[in-house]
Amino acid sequence: MATIPQWIMIGGDGPESYNQHSSYQRALLEAAKEKMNDAISAKLSLELISGRFIVADFGCASGPNTFVAVQNIIDAVEYKYRKATGQNPAENIEFQVLFNDSTTNDFNTLFQALPAGRRYYGAGVPGSFFGRVLPKHSFHIGVISHAFHFTSEIPKGITDRDSPLWNRDMHCTGFNEAVKKAYLDQYSTDTKNLLDARAEELVPGGLMLLFGSGLRDGVKMSETAKGMVLDFIGASLNDLSQQGVIDQDKVDSFSTPLYIAEEGELRQIIKENGKFTIEAFEDIIHPNGEFPLDPKILAVSCKAAFGAFISAHFGADAMRKAFELVEVKAREEFSRIQNAKPGMQYLIVLRKN
Ligand SMILES: C[S@@+](CC[C@H](N)C(=O)[O-])C[C@H]1O[C@@H](n2cnc3c(N)ncnc32)[C@H](O)[C@@H]1O
């Protein structure tokens, strides 16, 4: 398998940071809040809400979305407890939140931004969520928000110009059936490992809440707005190589450890893994629609999510130039983007078997 740098967000809270440019991801948490509350009310056993209640966020980044995700969960658990028992949760339940991300994540920014007045004790858990990062039975509800689309590595052949699996132009346009199968196989293996690890770490009857972007069955990534934007990144890198700014070999050997799965694929992977029951699979209407942003904001938010990974391959200067070109391309093709096929924003609720 090709070695790849770890996927991280741009840390800190500066003008390029994920911290400042993750409102699109946050909007899904808010839009799905009611459905999440319903799921916690209906599916979380009341017996689990006593004494110490532990929430874990996997792929938490440096904030601030993780604080919204975990607070929404705590609110829902407290609501259920109050309604069912008539008692004040503040007097009887202590919450702890475990914040997990890769070791290279900017945990300092995260810890400095912990909300004042929070009603939980925080702790960092460094390490890859594809494997175990916690002891058995460590938490009651886990959340993964916008981090359920990663692979642990890029499948063999994808970055090799001589292979039939070579994925030219980074991701979407060159995403033929063979490339798709290689990514799907890798994604299935990794996601099953992730689910195995969480199943061990969760208490019996615990829940996993997955928020993220997927595809409706039969829709290709390249037909969606997000896929088009990914293609702009690939095209911009190609432009930079034409201008002699970066090496074409580097562009040709660049690919991302991401796979945006279709609903049916997600269902099948979870079913084959067998450790969880799907209690809800909600197609959430995002308040900003599929493509809300103006080209400038789009380029900056995309840079916050992809920039650190691209910098690791091409250097920070080339990365900044690439995103200037992404903005130009997004401006030129804005109407195509607006007419793209819809993607899908999901909330998936899993209950440990
Ligand atoms: C797009 S951010 C999402 C952040 C946050 N959950 C949100 O909703 O805004 C994806 C996060 O997943 C983390 N991540 C990617 N691969 C990971 C892995 N193997 N183990 C732990 N975290 C990982 C990245 O470092 C990044 O912080």
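^ S-adenosylmethionine complex. Residues 124 and 284 are 30 Å apart (CA to CA). DSSP finds twelve helices and seven strands in the chain.
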